[in-house]
């Protein structure tokens, strides 16, 4: 064999690659990521009895996936053992994980999801998308089932105000949120007492107090600037109190010029005033939530906006005797449509039962147990966080922060509100966050703020590819 | 003879096919799927997929976020490779020829190790460290400026739309310059000493030797560095995602294509649209690589 023939007989690298690519691409394309099937599955169901109102089948395994974040997953393990006590012979496959979305996305596509999922955390699956794709079970059976503690009471009637609404998409309840979060402004009570400061209930009083605080050498406000959505909460809360439920509805329903309503412009003006008068700790716009909250915990700053998870989040670094408390955002004017005690409240820690679960009845039953007073109390004890089950905090010794949250919730009574646009239209939420970040650094005016956000809302409203919701 | 040939083919196939199959499944097929998904409205969780033609690409052109990302990646593409290569060459020259009479500097390997160090850290960790450095109140950078009496220059580096992207680029340069210094130093060490000596005998000064002898001989290495750094500049996702306000801010000042892709896929559940971004990025990177390789394809210098 001479060298030249040898060269010719060997296939060139290019030819081999080309042939292999052509051969490999075809079958692979066929079995690609979107190749799910939509066949209806026959889920197992048992007989319904007084003891087993949801008809959980005997000896059927249950797979539970829990977001193991700030709240850990011990509370879920506790509920799972209660489940096993009620359903002898049922094994429970428990998974406590962080990236719920990454782990479960392929399983939802392939229609082999777990039986119940805590779809929470930064890596969660977009709820609106799951709903739109019809991947979730209707939870009506669960809500109408007798509650574990009092069979005369339906599960529906044991939940705090707003919880059922929060889980409703297209007139169907498709998720049930386990924790109850309220938003407000946080301060250290001893710090305020020592300086003779009283937490204000009106915006004018807030500005007067900020002046006083600044003179004492402490920065009045900071916010978690890296994520401007934290500053949206007081802004949108003040707007909601000023304009009442109609303002909130107009925003969520993407009505024309909803973001130009006086309440919203006034609230944006209030935040801009705070920045303009130098009442915000300098550099706040670049601080992460941990950095801003640490500055606050070290009493470099008097006031920070946050949700009711703050106390649990700051556990490790709160100095002794700091005694944080939460107050609702002040009223913008005397003519506000909601009382100043009204609270922005929303339930979170979203539990779902996938439509294609193997044991959906078991999934519902797990939630019936989790949302019982016993299991909810255990959660509150473990995490000093308010569950969305009414009365779960009764009889417990509460820490300073959680106690103030309970007081605020009791004072608000039925006057709670929540914006839904964040869950319904994620791109609009981003536009609001960006605009508020710019507002707080005075790079845009309140009028420009509402123009920008209105433009983003209009873009969502006219985008035919986006599924619309109404409330 | 013919038997022999079949044996060869069998051996060739046995050697190539397993690797090729892995390559096809884990590299080619995701690419093919991305191209296909970019023509659909896939949400990421549904098994149902609708073909939407080039709709996603027409949306891209009108998407202000994507255009901001293009602008930012474009600026990074202009700045990061040039600065990194210039600094890398400078450091490599100093280490390799900075000693007496053009020899290697004393402790050259120590310098190389020290400069190479950032390469050992993963990008998210680098981004996190630099977030501390840029901290407006307790950060190293502002602390240093205030310490030497230049407190007036202290800035909210990551919170200012005019500075944030430059702060990101500084991190990218810092994290890669050590690697390219080592790469260039190795290429310089490979230049036969006779060539340098001949130049010196001919009366070339240090600068002339560097400019006319050493650098032209490094052409191929620099060219490869350009391609790699160009790809790096078109990415920037990890640093932006971990370090910047928003992330991608303030007000989209540090938005990059990779971040938009990630957000559209995993936050907005628009996997089809995200795939279209990926395809656009793919062609950008490909064009860059081809242009860079073409630009350098002339008079090759053969050593020895």
Automatic annotation (TrEMBL), chain A:
InterPro entries: Bact_solute-bd_prot1 (IPR050490), Chitin_NgcE (IPR022386), SBP (IPR006059), TAT_signal (IPR006311). GO terms for cellular component: cell envelope. It holds the Pfam family SBP_bac_1. Its main location: other. It is found in: Cell envelope. It comes from the Bacteria. Keywords: Signal, Transport. The keyword Cell wall biogenesis/degradation does not apply. Residues 1-30 form the signal peptide. Belongs to the bacterial solute-binding protein 1 family. This is N-acetylglucosamine transport system substrate-binding protein. It comes from Asanoa hainanensis.
TrEMBL record, chain B:
Belongs to the binding-protein-dependent transport system permease family. PANTHER family: ABC TRANSPORTER PERMEASE PROTEIN, DIACETYLCHITOBIOSE UPTAKE SYSTEM PERMEASE PROTEIN NGCF. It is found in: Cell membrane. This is N-acetylglucosamine transport system permease protein. It comes from Asanoa hainanensis. It comes from the Bacteria. It is a multi-pass membrane protein. The keyword Secreted does not apply. The chain crosses the membrane at residues 12-32, 75-95, 115-134, 163-186, 222-243, 271-293. Keywords: Cell membrane, Membrane, Transmembrane, Transmembrane helix, Transport. The keyword Transmembrane applies. Gene3D superfamilies: MetI-like. One of its GO terms (cellular component) is plasma membrane. One of its GO terms (biological process) is transmembrane transport. InterPro entries: ABC_transporter_permease (IPR051393), MetI-like (IPR000515), MetI-like_sf (IPR035906). Residues 70-292 form the ABC transmembrane type-1 domain.
């Amino acid at each position: 064999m001479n060298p030249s023939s040898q060269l010719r007989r060997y296939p060139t690298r290019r030819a081999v690659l080309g042939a292999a690519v052509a051969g490999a691409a075809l079958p692979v394309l066929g079995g690609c990521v979107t190749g799910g099937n939509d066949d209806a599955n026959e889920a197992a169901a048992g007989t319904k009895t007084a003891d087993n109102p949801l008809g959980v089948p005997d000896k059927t395994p249950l797979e539970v996936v829990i977001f193991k974040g700030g709240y850990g997953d011990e509370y879920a393990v506790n509920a799972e053992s209660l489940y096993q006590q009620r359903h002898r012979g049922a094994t429970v496959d428990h998974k406590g994980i962080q990236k719920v979305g990454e782990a479960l996305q392929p399983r939802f596509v392939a229609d082999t999801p777990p039986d119940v999922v805590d779809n929470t955390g930064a890596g969660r699956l977009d709820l609106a998308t799951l709903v739109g794709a019809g991947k979730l079970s209707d939870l009506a059976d669960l809500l109408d089932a007798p509650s574990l503690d009092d069979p005369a009471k339906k599960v529906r009637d044991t939940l705090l105000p707003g919880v059922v609404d929060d889980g409703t998409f297209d007139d169907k309840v498709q998720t049930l949120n386990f924790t109850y979060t309220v938003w407000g402004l946080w301060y250290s009570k001893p710090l305020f007492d020592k300086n003779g400061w009283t937490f204000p209930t009106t915006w004018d009083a807030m500005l007067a107090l900020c002046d006083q605080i600044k003179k004492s050498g402490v920065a009045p406000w900071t916010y978690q600037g890296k994520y401007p959505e934290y500053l949206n909460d007081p802004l949108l809360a003040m707007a909601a109190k000023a304009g009442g439920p109609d303002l909130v509805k107009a925003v969520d329903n993407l009505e024309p010029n909803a973001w130009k309503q006086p309440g919203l412009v006034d609230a944006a003006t209030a935040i801009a005033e705070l920045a303009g008068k130098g009442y915000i700790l300098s550099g706040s716009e670049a601080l992460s939530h941990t950095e801003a909250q640490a500055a606050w915990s070290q009493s470099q700053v008097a006031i920070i906006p946050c949700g009711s998870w703050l106390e649990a989040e700051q556990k490790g670094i709160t100095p002794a005797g700091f005694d944080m408390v939460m107050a609702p955002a002040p009223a913008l004017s005397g003519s506000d449509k909601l009382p100043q005690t009204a609270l922005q409240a929303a339930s979170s820690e979203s539990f779902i039962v996938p439509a294609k679960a193997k044991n959906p009845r078991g999934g519902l039953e797990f939630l019936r147990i989790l949302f019982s007073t016993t299991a909810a109390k255990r959660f509150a004890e473990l995490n000093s966080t308010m569950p969305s089950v009414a009365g779960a905090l009764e009889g417990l010794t509460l820490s300073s922060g959680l106690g103030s949250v309970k007081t605020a919730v009791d004072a608000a009574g039925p006057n709670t509100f929540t914006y839904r646009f964040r869950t319904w239209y994620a791109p609009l939420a981003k536009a609001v966050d960006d605009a508020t970040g710019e507002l707080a650094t005075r790079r845009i005016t309140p009028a420009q703020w509402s123009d920008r956000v209105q433009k983003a809302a209009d873009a969502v409203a006219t985008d035919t590819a986006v599924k619309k919701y109404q409330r | 003879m013919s038997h022999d040939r079949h044996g060869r083919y069998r051996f060739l196939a046995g050697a190539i096919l397993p690797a090729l199959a892995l390559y096809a499944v884990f590299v080619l097929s995701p690419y093919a799927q991305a191209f296909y998904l970019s023509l659909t409205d896939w949400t990421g969780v549904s098994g149902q997929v609708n073909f939407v033609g080039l709709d996603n690409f027409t949306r891209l052109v009108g998407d202000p976020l994507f255009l901001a990302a293009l602008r930012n990646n474009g600026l990074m593409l202009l700045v990061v490779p040039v600065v990194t290569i210039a600094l890398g060459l400078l450091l490599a020259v100093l280490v390799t020829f900075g000693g007496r009479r053009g020899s290697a500097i004393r402790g050259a390997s120590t310098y190389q190790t020290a400069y190479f160090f950032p390469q050992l850290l993963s990008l998210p960790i680098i981004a996190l460290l630099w977030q501390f450095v840029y901290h407006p109140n307790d950060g190293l950078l502002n602390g240093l400026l205030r310490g030497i009496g230049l407190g007036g220059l202290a800035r909210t580096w990551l919170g200012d739309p005019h500075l944030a992207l430059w702060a990101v680029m500084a991190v990218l340069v810092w994290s890669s310059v050590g690697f390219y210094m080592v790469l260039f130093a190795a290429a310089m060490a490979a230049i036969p000493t006779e060539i340098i000596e001949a130049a010196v005998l001919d009366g070339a000064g240090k600068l002339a030797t560097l400019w006319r002898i050493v650098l032209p001989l490094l052409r191929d290495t620099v060219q490869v560095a350009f391609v790699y750094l160009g790809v790096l500049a078109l990415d920037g996702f990890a640093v932006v995602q971990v370090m910047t306000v928003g992330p991608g801010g303030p007000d989209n000042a540090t938005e990059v294509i990779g971040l938009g892709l990630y957000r559209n896929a995993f936050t907005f559940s628009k996997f089809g649209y995200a795939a279209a971004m990926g395809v656009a990025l793919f062609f950008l990177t490909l064009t860059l690589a081809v242009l860079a390789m073409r630009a350098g394809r002339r008079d090759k210098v053969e050593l020895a």
